[in-house]
Design brief:
The structure holds two protein chains of two kinds. By secondary structure, chain A is mainly alpha-helical. Chain A is built from 15 helices and two strands. A two-stranded antiparallel sheet of chain A has the order 1-2. In chain A, strand 1 and strand 2 form a beta hairpin. In chain A, helix 6 packs antiparallel against helix 11 and helix 9 packs antiparallel against helix 11. By secondary structure, chain B is an alpha+beta fold. Chain B folds into two domains: about 50 residues, no CATH class; about 130 residues, Immunoglobulin-like, CATH 2.60.40. In chain B, strands 2-3-6-12-11-8-9 form a seven-stranded mixed beta sheet. A five-stranded mixed beta sheet of chain B has the order 1-10-7-4-5, covered by helices on one side. In chain B, about 45% of the residues are buried. Classes of the chains: A mainly alpha, B alpha+beta. At the A-B interface, helix 2, helix 6, helix 7, helix 8 and helix 9 of A face helix 1, strand 8, strand 9, strand 10 and strand 11 of B.
Amino acid sequence: MSELFRTCPRSGLVFHKAAESLIKFNAVTAVVFLAVGGVLGLLVVMTRWPAVHLLSADLFYQVLTGHGIIMLLVWIIFFEMAVLYFCSSTLLRCRLATPRFAWLGYVLMLGGAAITGVAILQGGSSVMMTSYVPMPAAPHFYLGLILFAVGALIGCFVFLGTLVVAKNERTYEGSIPLVTFGALTACIIAIFTIASGAIILIPTFLWSVGYISNIDPLMYRVIWWAMGHSSQQINVAAHVSVWYAIAAIVFGARPMSERVSRGAFLLYILFLQLASAHHILVDPGVGTEWKIFNTSYAMYLAVLASMVHGLTVPGSIEVAQREKGYTNGMFEWLRKAPWGNPVFSGMFISLVGFGFLGGITGVVMGTEQINLIIHNTIYVPGHFHPTVVLGTTLAFMALCYFLVPVLFRRELFLPGLAKWQTYLFGGGTALMSLFMMGAGTLGVARRHWDMAFSGAPFSFEFGGAAYMMMGLTGIFGVISVIGGAAFVIVIVGTILLGKKIEDKSEYSTARPAVLPMAPPAPANTGTGFIAPGTFALAVVFLATFVVYYFLNWMYLSSVWPMK
Amino acid sequence: MSALLPPSERIWGNHPLDKVEGTWIAIALVWCLFMFFMMPYWHVFGKQNYAGEAYRTTPAVYSAKVEKMVEAHTVRKETALDIPVVRPPAGSDVYLAGRLWSWYPALELEKDQTYRLHISSLDWQHGFSLQPINVNAQVVPGYEMVLTITPDKSGEYTIICNEFCGALHHTMMGKIYVVDR
């Protein structure tokens, strides 16, 4: 059977026809779920805003369950399927392995999401994304998640199969590109994640229909989080790959050192999925040594990897910009970057937001003892919104601004709105998260309908500062949702109404040219650092990290002595 | 575009690194190791730890222990629900139960005395969250956590629940009164 390929004249990318359809369907499905999850997010934030307090308690927990599952699993994993197919078939100029299985995976994911969605809508499964036993959900709540995971697993194997096809058919020279390497990292972590999910969700499903009498709640937490947290590590590997891709697309940047960047991805594969422990730090029945080793990803080696990517991605941009002549001072390369291009601005806000807000707070709250003053407060979502929303979602949005016009051969709809969207969404989310963290530090609980505790037998009042922080969380949460809506409008508008690009790229059965190796980088002849501006920014980052880290130890040392 | 292209070296492990990367990796590694050793250090020299003492139990067994303490040491009852306030002897074992939707019973402790605070759930998972000092722990049915505490300031402390436990989760509240001797 002859395979059809087309070459995009603007980007030079080579699309295999079957892969192109799969990328489009997975990405568009993802964006539709993002829109639904965004509406639910708006309802959540309008309820946690004390002055508004929109929904009733039952409805709030139901909506929050839906928001968590749609955003953390459905939107992101559908988009990641598109990223996996893009990073294998498109980047390697290779036919996608077994497109029919990829479609089967797509259908299973869609069906699974729908089944779990129905379970949540029916109201008997408001158990939050984590569905901690022994609180019961309807059996089809778990069943839908299992089907969704099986579909995603099929997508992972299609990705791996495509790498094999590319290697056998010699569609590229040398090693796979860095971005594909990062996607492979994400895929390997995804397989670990899905295996953990199967190990816990299948027995839980059997428990819910009565075949198993008891699921140990602590075992559930340990294994569930091997899925729940690791699935966020798929996102980290995926969005770091997207950062590298965008640096290459926008600036023609090359990785500073393949050895360093790939070595950092290897550290992710080895250590990043130890993160289950982050959620078990103040649980009974788990040993201290286990907690310390696991919560630190084996002496913070995966944190080291993220700190490396945090330097090498902007560093590679700095090198590329300096080669173009932006050499004045430390930061001309950054000042003269294309801040009006949402592909770049989205990626850069994602990088900074993930590092400063998501990364630092993640390490601090994942410190075993400091977790005592943070566990289950609204600080926790204040941490993971910068990682998953600023980090992953915004990076994926930035990629969409590049990829959707290329895939659908249409001009971007409302480019002026797109230009502002990354700032609106990034700024709104960043500030919302900051105020959530502030409120969490003051003790406000996550997953909690009423910080005034109406109907409780005793009374307790949070101070004015906590109320103010939750009010600001509400305001900036609404701004974040508006920013998200702008994204959906631009992307859906582009697909339906965007001006068609007549690019004469017809499908043909001709085999695409072999992907050549990159030209060797010129040697660094200077005596100083190749990227001094980036190094200075990295030092600012480290200083912030150190100060904030010790500040939290100081808070901890002020509470009751305990052991 | 070379992040999208195969690397120029056939063996990517041979790709040289610039001193900016080497320097940063060294600094970051030192910081990472420091943060790692901070945790065991605090277990030895810090005052706020949970050492991990815990036992398996069942709701029935644990509930019996709570009731025994309530019968022996209740000093008064509060609110329209007659919630017992228990004042156990200084230094003793204190049993607190999380259940749908209350923390039972209320406790009265002496300042600067050390207590072995046992916490467990009689039904679903709950989140022990002591305000306003914001000390938090996960409460898991079937497991009895023992947190050895020394309240060092007197006053009224509130336990809220910060693990979602159903419709009236927000009404789940308990009290710890810390009094001067």
